[in-house]
Amino acid sequence: MPGCCGCCSALRPRYKRLVDNIFPVNPEDGLVKSNMEKLTFYSLSSPDKLDRIGEYLYQKATKDINRKRYKLAEIAMEAMDLLLQACHAQTTLNLFVESFLRMVQKLLEDSNPNLKIMATNSFVKFANINEDTPSYHRRYDFFISKFSSMCHSDAASLRDSLRLAGIKGLQGVIRKTVSDDLVENIWEAQHMEKIVPSLLFNMQSGDLTPVEDATNVTPPALAEEVLRELVGRASFGHIRSVLKPLLTHLDRHELWVPNTFAIHTFRIVMISIQPQYSYTVVETLMQHLDNNFKSSPKTRTSLAVVLSKIIAIAAGESVGPSALDIINNLLTHLRTSVSTTSEITPEESQYQEALINALGEFANHHPDYQKIEIMLFIMNTVPDLSKKSKGDQMLQNILLKSLLKVGTQYSTVSFEKAFPASFLQPLLKMARAPHDPTRMVVMQIFQALLDRHQNEKVLSSVSVKPYPALSQEPPSRSDIIFTHKYGANIMQALIDSMALSDRVDALSSSYNTAALLIVEMSCNETVQEFLLFILGIQQVASTTETLGTVHKCNLHIIAIGLLVLISRVSGINNLLDYAQKIVDARREEASHYLPPLLEPKKMANKSLNLSLPHLAIDKLALGECLQNAGMDAQRLNTGAPYALNQTDHPGHRHSWVESVSNQLTQRNSSADLTVYNGDVDSVSSSPGVCKKLLAPEFNFDAMKRALAEPTEAAKRELRERQMQIVRTFREGEFDDLMRRTEPKHDLIQNRLNELFNSLAVERQITQSDTKAAQLQASNEKPIYETNFPELFYY
């Protein structure tokens, strides 16, 4: 019998004999290395036998597993690993791989955890091999399902090892399938719904801090690594396939409240995703927020907080319409929140604040020019003041808070760019809103955009004492031009705002805005307009009967506070001395005319004396202070203080005569003066003014003197002539003005008659000469008809 067996074994194929020889007599001894080398050499020299070797190894392993001889099954798996590593460059590898995968599947199906771990490690080794020839029929459905189930293992023994093996197996499937378009599409929903939740399950079961020790990898750390790899490999069309099961997992396991894990997960996604696709994550999360509009406020707040944490990462890749699209979606959620609730609860308020923070974070990562576009876009969505319902007022307040959030992120350099007309005009309208919180938010927006030197906190309270921490620099030319153009509009809106409410916080906010305006824009060219503004505040307090007593006192307090401030900021000592005299006098006679602002409730039972005209700011005294300081006071002396609810442009309230005289006063060069005083008829028509005679000599010295700066006497003479024109037009009789300024019709008519007579005589002479020439050359064509015939057609 032994001889017979030896004879039969000699008749078996060689590859089977080689395979049989790698198994030891005692399974505990492990793989026979020398015989394994022979089998490897045979496989390399006879690649056509490789598929048969694989099939035979699979059959032997299947029998061993069925008979519970796990050591022999492990040896067979080890042999297939070695053959796969040695022969991966063979063209016939595909047929061997089929047997290899069947072997892995057989081991994974068994209940022995060691076999599962070994099979997974073998699959990972296979996944790292780059195959030259693709396989069109290979499928990985079983492996995805099996590895996903291993990720959820709750076995008492080897739980972490099985979970690690499952995560590694999923990583191997991802690497094997993502890089090859010819194999099964792993991005299909049926696969992603198994892979993504398995990774998230392991991530949430451990500490969220990353593990730096590579030798001791934990399931949460490895799952996070695989999720990063999965998201990083996703293209634009596949990223939503990852996000949908991710959001579903967070919903089903109620992981939004608290949202620590959700924030951590989405940060991983945003950091790992290709930058150009980050906008898709924000858009998907917003759509999920839309779908959860009926969820509890806490859930929606957590979603909004997650959005605010990741939206900044997407901001760098969002430009143009995509940026405004995100802003529009956030504003839509805010409007929905306001419209669906009659009363704002604390939870709903937190949700709105989270959305506003998300909007601010998004805008913060955009350049300043885009921030202006975002603010303008938000401003255009604010309901008009004509809508006075409670819901509209709430929506106004919420949207303006969003605008404020963006404004605080903007770094103002030029007021012309920070306040374009299309943005400034609606903002000024909102400054006159009847709702106090709305006006206060508008003031905060102005403060955020006006405050270039961080003076907002320094000027937060009304005071007549020096501000030691005040920071200031002279305004630029463009800022001065902006003040001339729009400063009056802003100051008019401030006066209207101050008169609308006696609340101390609202008045303090208006004062803060006015003080910042003065600090940022005050100079010799604008100080007169600011003084008219201060006089306007005082006049409103003195003449408006509808205001309460405490309200009037507070307006007087604001006026004196701004006067002291502009005196210190502009450096006009005469003006500061005058303001200090008023402060000292009020301190002795009427302390209720000095800061701090009075609380209406506390002063309700106290009688306050308002008939104190000698303690008021005097317009003429202000003009004298400016003149004594060597400054022009024409605008202050001739202009009227700002009035309440004034509809026209405050800068144009004075007559055209005053504006002309103002402009002439500001001109210094004689070249400018000659525009007004030259040889023109307009000067002759001015009443009481004779035309200036030119100097009789026209030599070099005379021309040099004419181009030089005018002397003080010439300036005084010019000023007197200008005032004479003003007085004549103001005080003269209308008939006298008509007589003085009527055109000289007789003179013009005489000159026209002389001109027409000379033309008639010249025409007669020309006609007689033409007839004589025609008689001399009747047969010749006139030269003018030949060269220029069209010039004589009528």
TrEMBL record:
Top-level lineage group: Eukaryota
Gene3D superfamilies: Leucine-rich Repeat Variant
Coiled coil: none
Family statement: Belongs to the EFR3 family.
Listed name of the protein: Protein EFR3 homolog cmp44E isoform X2
